Amino acid sequence: MTMEEYRKKLTFRQRLAICMCLAAPSSTWLIRSLAGEVTEYARGLLAGVLVSGILIGAFVAARMTVLLKNEDKLREQYIKATDERNQAISRETSRAACLILLVALYLGIIVSAFFSITVSLTLFCVLQVFALAVFGSFFYYKGKM
């Protein structure tokens, strides 16, 4: 990846973070209007998701803006991002985390089946979505690389 490609990638991330800040209130409003009357817990949960979405988006957008305006920091971050050792650590960390999460979900499905079929089926659905994401990304990168 060249420095210009990295700059474009950061610009895309910056725009995505700004969209996240803008989309959080409207998506929360849309969910509340479609759901109708919701419990106090659901309102609190939506408020928390809204605030966290805005804060995370603002933080990422601000960080990307600082990097894009400061050439020295941009170059330093580019070196960190393209360092082979950091990339290898990231790959191994992701691989181990996926395996741990798959095993934990599998065990959670088994244990929760003794207590609540709803929780067990929900965890099963989460496991299926996670597995689809892992296999989808595997085949995407297999074709890309």
Question: Can you walk through the features of this model?
Answer:
This protein is mainly alpha-helical and 145 residues long. It has two domains: 82 residues; 61 residues. The chain is built from five helices and no strands. α2 packs across α3. The longest helix has 33 residues. The two termini are 13 Å apart.
List the SSEs and their pairings:
Elements (H helix, E strand, L loop, with lengths): L2 H33 L4 H30 L1 H12 L1 H30 L3 H28 L1
Helix pairs in contact: 1-2, 2-3, 4-5
* Sheet of most strands: none
| Number of structural domains | 2
Spans where pLDDT lies below 50 across 5 or more residues: none
Morphology call: flat
Mean pLDDT: 88
> What's the end-to-end separation, in Å?
13 Å
Fraction of residues in helices? over 70%
Count of helical regions: 5
Strand-and-helix sequence, N→C?
A: HHHHH
Question: How much β-strand is present in the residues?
Answer: under 5%
Radius of gyration of CA atoms, rounded to a whole number? 20 Å
Secondary-structure-based class equals mainly alpha
Report the strand count. 0
